[in-house]
């Protein structure tokens, strides 16, 4: 048995997709052995410790994907699994092709691109056309939530197998408290993620600045519009050891997104025992209300009230720990491999 994992979405800076591909590779290695699993990459990745095969053809380029389809046709394998919505337009008979769909944001959220109206229409048309051939080629599609499953069914008319994502453990080797001097335990709220329009960060900032809390708001990630306020700290991209500190010490983790295919940062925050204030939009509403405090991402007062009342909100860490057991990657991939 020879397995090829399409890991061309791996980047040198660890991302949610990168973590998923890493865990996907581990899952296949547990099933078939490290010698039988190879991950396709465009270039070597520093943190990726497993066998890889370099492919010169990039993802999400139409011409490159035709070349990739020809290149992959010549490879020797039994199973091909793409870590997100990329892959060939056709494949040889006698091999199995699987792809994971994390979300279909461009078709669900208006203005998900920061482009002009005409360029947005052209971009969406190109992506929809591109994804159509990938979906048609796949023998099996995994959706990471019921929301993504339903979006795939509505947009492309295909069924998919719902398989949740798992907790991404963050391991740090050093204490970073000195870097965050002044941000002691329970003195700040935390957001981790990009600044894309659908992430709803302007809503978060406006709600926070309307509160009476003396705590600060720490916003991690790239692409944010900077608001000049002494109450808000923008960190940009942060390494795992910094995230470890920030999760451990925040008063609450806030996730205001208008749509997510899954919502990995919520799992990360819960794994630290954080209070979590989350939008109830898209797949985020699929998390248990027993472990997450929900708010309407269009109703600012909902979030204002949660922030102002934060210190009075009590969470049950035993309930959280029990809830998180089903999000263990080993359990998830065992379930998947038993199924197919």
Description:
With 340 residues, this protein is an alpha/beta fold. The chain contains eleven helices and 13 strands. It has a seven-stranded parallel beta sheet with strand order 3-2-1-4-5-6-7, with helices on both faces. Strand 11 (252-255), helix 8 and strand 12 (276-279) form a beta-alpha-beta unit. It is globular.
Characteristic terms for this protein:
340 residues; alpha/beta; seven-stranded parallel sheet; six-stranded parallel sheet; 11 helices; globular
What is the overall silhouette?
globular
The succession of helices and strands, N to C, reads: EHEEHEEHHEHEEHEEHEHEEHHH
- The strand order across the widest sheet is 3-2-1-4-5-6-7
Report the major sheet.
Answer: 7 strands, parallel
Tell me the radius of gyration: 21 Å
> What is the SS-derived class?
alpha/beta
Q: Unreliable segments (pLDDT under 50, ≥5 consecutive)?
A: none
Instruction: Please give the alpha-carbon distance between the first and last residues.
Output: 14 Å
Count of separate DSSP helical elements: 11
Helical proportion, percent range: 25-40%
Oligomer: single chain
Strand content: 15-25%
Overall mean confidence score, pLDDT: 91
Instruction: Count the E strands.
Output: 13
């Amino acid at each position: 048995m020879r397995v090829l994992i399409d890991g061309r979405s791996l980047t040198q800076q660890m991302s949610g997709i990168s973590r998923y591909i890493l865990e996907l590779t581990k899952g296949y290695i547990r099933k078939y052995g490290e010698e039988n699993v190879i991950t396709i990459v465009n270039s070597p990745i520093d943190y990726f410790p497993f066998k890889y095969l370099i492919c010169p053809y990039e993802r999400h380029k139409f011409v490159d994907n035709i070349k990739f389809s020809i290149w992959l046709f010549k490879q020797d394998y039994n199973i091909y699994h793409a870590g997100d919505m990329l892959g060939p337009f056709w494949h040889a008979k006698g091999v199995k092709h699987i792809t994971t769909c994390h979300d279909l944001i461009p078709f669900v959220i208006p203005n998900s691109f920061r482009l002009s109206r005409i360029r947005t229409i052209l971009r969406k048309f190109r992506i929809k056309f591109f994804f159509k051939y990938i979906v048609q080629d796949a023998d099996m599609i995994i959706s990471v939530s019921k929301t993504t499953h339903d979006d795939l069914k509505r947009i492309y008319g295909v069924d998919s197998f719902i398989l949740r994502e798992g907790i991404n453990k963050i391991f740090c080797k050093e204490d970073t408290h000195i870097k965050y001097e002044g941000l002691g335990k329970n003195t700040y709220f935390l957001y981790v993620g990009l600044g894309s329009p659908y992430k709803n960060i302007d809503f978060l900032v406006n709600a926070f600045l309307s509160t009476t809390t003396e705590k600060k708001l720490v916003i991690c990630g790239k692409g944010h519009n900077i608001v000049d306020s002494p109450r808000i700290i923008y960190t940009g991209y942060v390494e795992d050891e910094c995230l470890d500190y920030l999760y451990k010490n925040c008063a609450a983790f806030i996730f205001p997104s208008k749509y997510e295919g899954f919502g990995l940062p919520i799992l990360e925050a819960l794994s630290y025992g954080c209070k979590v204030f989350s939008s109830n939009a898209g797949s985020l509403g699929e998390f248990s209300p027993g472990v997450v405090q929900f708010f309407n991402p269009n109703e600012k007062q909902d979030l204002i009230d949660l922030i102002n009342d934060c210190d009075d909100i009590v969470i049950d860490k035993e309930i959280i720990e029990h809830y998180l057991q089903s999000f263990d990657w080993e359990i998830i991939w065992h379930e998947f491999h038993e199924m197919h």
